[in-house]
Fold:
Amino acid sequence: MSAEERRESAVRAAVTEFARGGYRGTSTEAIARRVGVSQPYLFRLFPNKQALFLAAAERCLEDTRGVFARACEGLEGEEALHAMAAAYQRHVIDDPDMFQMQMQMYAATAVAEVDGDAEFGERLRAGWLRMWDDVHLVLGADVDGTTTFLAYGMLANTLASLGFPAGHRVWSGFYLSARPVG
Structure:
């Protein structure tokens, strides 16, 4: 396996491990073990744990952008909105590690900011802003529409993280396309 293939394996393993244990609760040893490499080799691929976490978080954001882009290809306005909402729900179900990694990313950013590490959050905010811009353009550069779509997405993340099942009344205000599938 090439170094680039190992790096890709390490990012995928990091998504899984960080999704389950968070930034502080995940050891680089566990990630190296999942990849099947030594910890020193892992540090040849990534200079430190933070760089590995950021690579995993940025992958999560890029994958979500890809889900949105594929879903709305050739669509505009309301059709694009519903296609992206439905695709995101499938993404959350099909890739729970990616979903959990998103939640860990938000928590880790908040902790880093409290600890005085603004650079950590800057990288993740830049990735999130690229996603916002993509959605914004697809929805006709309508600030209210973009904000509403992403606000509902964050609410969906919160409700799913808290374990509200499909069909629960808390989902009743969502578009049908954005409600979880039972």
